[in-house]
Write a structure and sequence with these properties.
The complex is a heterodimer of chains A (523) and B (177). Chain A is α/β, with parallel strands linked by helices and 523 residues long. In chain B, β2 and β3 form a beta hairpin. Classes of the chains: A alpha/beta (523), B mainly alpha (177).
């Protein structure tokens, strides 16, 4: 049956969200001949619609629906209603991401085994390992066109990278390069190669950067078995007396509610909305929300130990020219407790335009100390720290007691307290980051606190045993056989690597699994 | 009000950065000199209040290279909101009154007439938890730094896709490492 699908067609796979998880899963299911509907809360903006202007683009793409925050993390103080910078649009956060495509390391799949139990942390081994993931990583890297794989050359280094590289090498770092990036360094897969536009975060206007919007969804739609329905915000998931999900309630762009029936439902709304949806789907049969017999839905929220170091020099850098994430230093991504913490972190270049630098360099700071740094904008280089933060049961998404959204549904509250391991890692990274830039003559280095989170993980985590998590090794919920999770909320732990490649690899693998189970009649 | 052409008092140099030649100025009763252009802009706030907010804005994010008119554009955002909201207007007027009180207590002058940059910054520091100060400050983050005309002064080149990106415009031209 070709797309578009009738609301009462209960033979369709329904996916909530069109990002790295949902967009990839939906495309892959369609390629396997399975009728699929992706319900996307946001609108559809194509490449030509993207805007090379930070605030205007934020207005166009960012998720701005209300959320609240609590806990001692600095984001709650600086950005109380913006815990995350993610996307509400077809393509999800793959329209916004920088393209860094790194595999999780072998030891990072087994943190409880390798780090031991850490007090105040809820560490757990993933029920899968690197060996099992390797073929899926390979498939994802080919699919996405990751540089330094599949014969694809690395991207050239921009000014910001050159500063990082020179400083890093001077202090003895060895694993320094322009990254494994899902950005074409030469034309590939009907997409152009990178023009070094420098507005990666605002949607790639050359098409060089992989996203589900430009690279997956069109392939799925071409089969006639994928319908992407934008401006469709899913509010609740419905189930029958046997405990199987039967469909979803969603609001269209006029706020009118509809029910789309479903054979299976896959939740891929990113790690704040996905658990929120499961919690908001509570019923008399499932008073704690769907798939929550473990109590872990919403818990173990991770956002990576992040922070930035910006350095000013006495000569120009023009760091904003070219790719935002233009290179990486990987030496610190190992597990080495002699540094004072478990797990590791990556250094990746980062650049902000002038408007966002004013907002994020040092939130709340004012006066000459701040403006004198801004005066040096053209002489600035910058990097971002991406480190493994600890899962904690109390770091969690819950439903707000007081605030409701436009449809009367309780909004999400994000509670987060830094674990001492996170703080120790961040401080080490700040110090090392300054050392990198000092080595090449930095006049001043600034330690920028974490931004609203762009990596959001762990809130419906994978576990071997049902009492420890929400989904099994295939992202199928322990409690409900035809309910799946397909986004980064599946991550058992966060690792030190950017999550998108793993989300895509898991989605490709999950599609295979779902297709197999459908063929055998189990789903 | 006397019209004064030409030089203002030494620390009012910033008011003259509006360009070559001499600007027509107006001296307010308090001794504050304001650019004539703003004193005639339709405003919700009193002209002296508006001018004080401009000085306060500059003191919050001081950039010698940025002319007053850019800070005035940012203040105008708040003034426009105050045209529609009595509460907003009161916050601005009361806030400036409080600022002037603090300045008179310490220096026997209204805020904008206090000569030393550091003295004015100290007055702001004492009220930095005040919602009024935070409103002025947070307004500037976007209201000042998002003015496209300012960007070249900082060396930010803005949109680039329409120019073919930076691949042939210096993305890797650093020469001093």
């Amino acid at each position: 049956m070709p797309a578009p699908y009738d609301l009462n067609d209960d033979s369709v796979a329904v996916i909530v969200g069109s990002g790295a998880g949902g967009g990839t899963l939906g495309t892959q299911l369609a390629l396997k001949g399975i009728d699929t509907v992706i319900l996307e809360a946001g609108s559809r903006h194509e490449t030509e619609d993207f805007i090379n202007d930070e605030w205007d683009s934020f207005g166009q793409l960012a998720w701005k629906d209300k959320r609240t925050t609590s806990g001692d993390w600095q984001v709650a103080k600086d950005f109380p209603n913006l815990p995350a910078w993610i996307v509400k649009a077809v393509g999800g956060s793959t329209t916004h991401w920088a393209g860094a495509s790194l595999r999780i390391q072998e030891h990072e799949f087994k943190t409880l085994t390798n780090y031991g139990a850490i007090e105040g942390a809820n560490l757990l081994d993933w029920p899968i390992d690197l060996k099992e993931m390797e073929p899926w990583y390979a498939m994802a890297e080919d699919r996405m066109g990751v540089t330094r794989t599949n014969g694809i050359p690395g991207l050239p280094g921009n000014n910001n990278f050159k500063v990082l590289e020179a400083g890093a090498k001077k202090i003895g770092y060895k694993e320094v390069h322009t990254g494994r990036m899902a950005i074409n360094s030469e034309p590939r897969d009907d997409r152009a190669s990178c023009l070094q536009i420098g507005f990666c975060f605002q949607g790639c206007k050359s098409g060089a950067k992989w996203s589900t919007l430009v690279s997956e969804i069109p392939k799925g739609e071409e089969t006639g078995r994928l319908e992407v329905r934008p401006d469709s915000q899913v509010l609740r998931i419905e189930h029958d007396a046997s405990g199987k999900v039967t469909g979803v309630v969603y609001a269209d762009k006029d706020g009118k509610e509809h029910v789309q029936k479903a054979r299976i439902v896959a939740v891929a709304g990113n790690s704040i909305e996905s658990p929120r949806l499961l919690l908001n789907s509570q019923s008399s049969m499932f008073p704690d929300g769907l798939a929550n017999s473990s109590g872990q839905v919403g818990r173990n929220y991770m956002r990576h130990t992040t922070g930035s170091v910006y350095a000013t020099f006495d000569k120009p850098v023009h760091m904003y020219r070219g790719t935002t994430m233009a290179g990486i230093v990987q030496d610190e991504a190992r597990h080495d407790t002699s540094r004072g913490f478990a797990g590791g972190y990556e250094f990746e270049t980062l650049s902000l335009g002038l408007p966002f630098m004013a907002a994020f360099l040092d939130p709340g700071k004012w006066g000459r100390d701040f403006s004198s740094a801004m005066d040096e904008y053209r002489n600035m280089a910058g990097l971002w720290i991406v480190g493994e933060d600890m899962p904690r049961e109390k770091n969690r998404i819950t439903l707000s007691d007081s605030d409701k959204d436009a449809f009367g549904m309780p909004v999400a509250n994000v509670n987060f307290d830094d674990h001492p391991n996170d703080t120790a890692m961040r401080n080490h990274a700040y110090q090392q980051g300054s050392a990198i830039y000092d080595a090449v003559g930095a006049v001043r280095t600034i330690h920028t606190p974490p931004y609203p989170s762009t990596h959001n993980l762990g809130t419906n985590r994978m576990s071997e045993k049902p009492e420890d998590g929400v989904v099994n090794r295939f992202g199928q919920t322990h409690d409900i056989p035809n309910l799946f999770v397909s986004d980064g909320s599946q991550f058992t732990t966060g690792a030190a690597e950017n999550p998108t490649l793993t989300i895509v690899a898991l989605a490709l693998r999950q599609a295979d699994h779902i297709a197999g189970r459908m063929a055998s009649g189990e789903l | 009000m006397a019209e004064v052409m030409g030089r203002a008092a030494p620390n009012r140099r910033s008011f003259l950065k509006g360009g070559a030649g001499l600007l027509a100025m107006t001296i307010m009763p308090s001794g504050l000199i304001v650019g004539q252009a703003w004193s005639q802009m339709p405003q919700a706030t009193k002209p002296e209040t508006f001018a004080t907010l401009v000085q306060m804005s500059r003191d919050t994010y001081p950039h010698a290279m940025i002319e007053d008119k850019y800070y005035a554009v940012a203040v105008d955002i708040l003034d426009q909101a105050a045209r529609a909201s009595e509460g907003d207007l009161a916050m601005l007027e009361d806030g400036v009154a409080k600022l002037n009180d603090a300045a008179r207590t310490k220096h026997d002058k209204d805020y904008a007439a206090v000569v030393s940059d550091d003295d004015r910054a100290a007055i702001l520091k004492a009220m930095e938890s005040d919602p009024f100060f935070q409103k002025i400050r947070s307004n500037l983050v976007v209201g000042l730094y998002n003015q496209k005309e300012l960007w070249p002064m900082f060396g930010y080149e803005g949109a680039s896709a329409d120019k073919g990106g930076y691949i042939e415009r210096g993305f890797d031209d650093i020469d001093w490492l």
